Amino acid sequence: MADDETARYIMEQIIAGDGSGDNVPLSYIDEEGTQADMFLNMSADGNEEQQPQQQLAVKEGSGEPSGSTQGQKTRGRTKVMEGRLVITEVTEEGRPVAPEKVAKKYVSQIGAIVRDNVPISIREWKGRSTNPYALPETEKNMLWEDVKRHFTFPKGYSEKDVKAWTLKKMATQFQTFKKMLDTHYIKKGKTPDFNAWPKLRDHWDAFVEYKRSEEGVKKIMTNTANAS
């Protein structure tokens, strides 16, 4: 149970970040009882640290989240929030940056949205409309509409740029999430706790079969290259 909790927490931390850098080591004990370091994005890019979760509200007129941490447990699943938060500034590339706390919450929330709505059987974020394993554009549009239900953006913002930045971030979070599932479960011959991750259940067997076949192809290519 402790190993499953650690793996769940690691996946939550990584899907909240961008997986691209500014990493620091987090030590934990793996299933063999040895200490290991996982490098997690703990920058100001949306990760939730090992602190009590907050029940977020919006301070009137500021867009800042506020709330009490009393009675909240640590290492809880990041869930799609209820209500709405206000973004007051975005960069030219479309990245929300202010207020800082809301910007961090934005990244963790889009990670939760993509995790909850895109099945792990999806193999490609971009692909032909005839490809059954590629995420359709209609689904991406639905993800964006879901984001807009939870966040208000500044007047005059470029929706095209913010949407493009958000979907790109979601793509990275989704791929990293699947990579961590492979590393912490499939490669160790384990199965996630479907009570904690109920939306994985229906797609798990297909995901495992694909990852194992993918690994097999890689090994064949490596062996062929080494033999030549």
UniProtKB/TrEMBL annotation:
Top-rank taxon, per record: Eukaryota
Start and end residues of each stretch annotated as Disordered: 43-78
PANTHER family in the record: OS02G0472350 PROTEIN, OS10G0338966 PROTEIN-RELATED
Protein name: Uncharacterized protein
Organism: Setaria viridis (Green bristlegrass)
